[in-house]
Amino acid sequence: MKQRIVTLVLVLSLIGTMMACSSEEPVDLEAVQAELTTNPETVIAGSEADMKVTVTGMKVSDTARATFDVRIGDEPVLMDAIHEGDGVFSGAFTFPGKGVYTVYIHLYEDDIHITKKKQVDVQ
Prior knowledge:
Elements: H1 2-22, E1 33-39, E2 48-56, E3 65-72, E4 75-80, E5 82-85, E6 88-94, E7 99-109, E8 112-122
Antiparallel strand pairs: 1-2, 2-6, 3-4, 3-7, 5-6, 7-8
């Protein structure tokens, strides 16, 4: 009898755990957007520019992380972004020369990794 009760408690605990895990909202990856802005709006080569990305289309928790991946030629330069809250991440970068730079934004939320590709025009 004791063994049946222990087995029943274990099964109910397992079911409760599975239900708790499945109650998370699914993420529609196509709906996730990332808007990248710079300050100053016109980025000048050799001067530090603040970059800010605002993520929409999904719930972004306080534990989410983001990385800016700036491509200098074919080489990535990675920097961890500061999480300001409400899906906003920021960081500063000095672009070495004039041109159009590719910036990949990597967002990590739980077991999800989303990458968005953006361009920054540097004068």
